[in-house]
């Protein structure tokens, strides 16, 4: 794994426990990261170059228990891998909602155009074109949400997913205090 100083995230802590959510009763390997630590790591990773692998260097003032030190990289990777799955589900749900919205929007748009044609033949001149145009506008407005999903909403989620995938692969190194 080729990690440059440009792709390094550095965190300074008194003890390793500060990296993890102390309220989480899960075993160490399944423990969530502390919310502030996660926000710091993700925020810093967003600012780093998108090429290459990431490395998290945790500078500790107090040496952790050997088993905790050995399991830190796996615990951090496991945490971000679980966040990847959550983000993938979010993207799938958004695209599913987009498909349903698109189907509803297209059907509604077609109904509006059909009703507009009916209005042209049934209503008196002057009002018929007003009603037809109004129905067409309402039909196109119904397409707003599916177009918003497919044009704009999915790509920030995809960018977050790619970042989380990088974080789930990152190398984690503990920088322990010098024994004196």
How would you sum up this structure, described in words?
This protein has 180 residues and is mainly α. It folds into 2 domains: 5-88 and 166-175, no CATH class; 93-158. The chain contains 4 helices and 3 strands. The protein has helices spanning 35-47, 66-122, 127-142, 144-169; strands at 8-13, 55-60, 171-175. Strands 1-2-3 form a 3-stranded parallel sheet, with helices on one face. Helix 1 links the parallel strand 1 and strand 2 (55-60). Helix 2 (66-122) packs antiparallel against helix 3 and helix 2 packs antiparallel against helix 4 (144-169). The longest helix has 57 residues, at 66-122. The radius of gyration is 26 Å and the shape is rod-shaped. Keywords: Membrane, Transmembrane, Transmembrane helix. The chain crosses the membrane at residues 102-123.
